[in-house]
Design a protein that fits this description.
Low-confidence stretches: none
Shape: flat
Radius of gyration: 24 Å
Structural class: mainly alpha
Number of helices: 5
Largest sheet: none
Number of strands: 0
Strand content: under 5%
Order of helices and strands: HHHHH
């Protein structure tokens, strides 16, 4: 193996997860699969694989995403990477415009998911703040005021 190749245990350790999670994410299509290796051989991973796994784990944790939602985000990011490469080699303005419109659609999908999560968190924060205020009022009612002492 080269200096940049890693086995699954090292990838899991560097990403802060388990080998089981890495295998499962491969199985459900969140990480590149192991179809490029022969049966029984170990798959080798790169720094890019570790970084992708870290990003996926962060998105899952920060946004509380289902695997299907996570897959949608990852697919949109992959599609944007392909669009970026095509954009770099495109010479016609019409083609570049088409690629930018496609990239914007993928970003809109990603932004909608993040915004939905943010709205849900803001709603929860508001409900908790209201409850906290009611508790503070009741607590104040129970405590004698200095004038009543």
């Amino acid at each position: 193996m080269t200096a940049r190749s890693m086995r699954i245990g090292e990838v899991a350790e560097r990403a802060g997860t388990t080998v089981r999670t890495v295998r499962y994410y491969e199985e459900v299509g969140l990480l590149p699969g192991s179809e490029d290796r022969s049966h029984g051989q170990h798959r080798s991973y790169s720094d890019a694989d570790v970084e992708r796994l870290r990003e996926i784990l962060q998105l899952k944790e920060l946004l509380g995403l289902s695997l299907e939602e996570l897959r949608g985000l990852v697919e949109a990011e992959e599609a944007r990477a392909v669009i970026r490469e095509r954009y770099r080699t495109a010479t016609e303005a019409a083609e570049r415009e088409r690629l930018l419109v496609a990239a914007a659609r993928h970003l809109d999908r990603q932004l909608a998911l993040v915004r939905d999560r943010r709205t849900a968190l803001e709603d929860l924060e508001g409900r908790l703040a209201e409850r906290r205020e009611r508790v503070a009022v009741r607590l104040a009612e129970l405590r004698p005021s200095p004038a009543r002492r």
